[in-house]
Amino acid sequence: MKKFDCDNCANNKSPYVCCDCVSAIADDGSEITRPSHWESKYDNVNRPKHYQTKNGLETIDAIEAFTEDLTGIEAVCTGNVIKYISRWKKKNGIEDLKKAEWYLQRLIRHEEIEESKNKTKENK
């Protein structure tokens, strides 16, 4: 299946038809219509509203972009900060802000420890 590119789709990375499009064309030229479960722009499992912007940008895509060069705890903490910050107003309010703060503090502590280790190695 060829990549579907549309002007309405906020994320043109997917090989699937976006929820705002009616159809696409496969490599063999046949028409591909969107799955029936995509009739709604939102779906609590696959496309939760609290993880989307008004134009359809999804938090998971932002997390993927911002963590692609990170590993381990750096990727986990960064991803969770983005997740909780992006949804706080639509889901759990101050609780989500506190969760984002918790992951941010954890990342800061981790980076301070790593920086200290690197300085110790440099001084030897």
Labels describing this entry:
124 residues, mainly alpha, two-stranded antiparallel ribbon, 3 helices, 2 strands, elongated, disordered N terminus
Structure report:
With 124 residues, this protein is mostly helical. It has three helices and two strands. The chain has a two-stranded antiparallel ribbon with strand order 1-2. α1 runs antiparallel to α2. The longest helix is centred in the C-terminal third of the chain and has 30 residues.
Q: Element order, helices and strands? A: EEHHH
- How are the strands of the largest sheet arranged? 1-2
Rg calc: 20 Å
Q: Give the strand content.
A: under 5%
- List low-confidence stretches: 1-5, 19-23
Distance between the termini: 56 Å
Biggest sheet: strands, sense, closure? Answer: 2 strands, antiparallel
Given the structure, what is the number of helices? 3
Number of strands: 2
Helix share, percent = 40-55%
Based on secondary structure, the structural category is mainly alpha
Shape from CA axes? elongated
| Arithmetic mean of pLDDT | 76
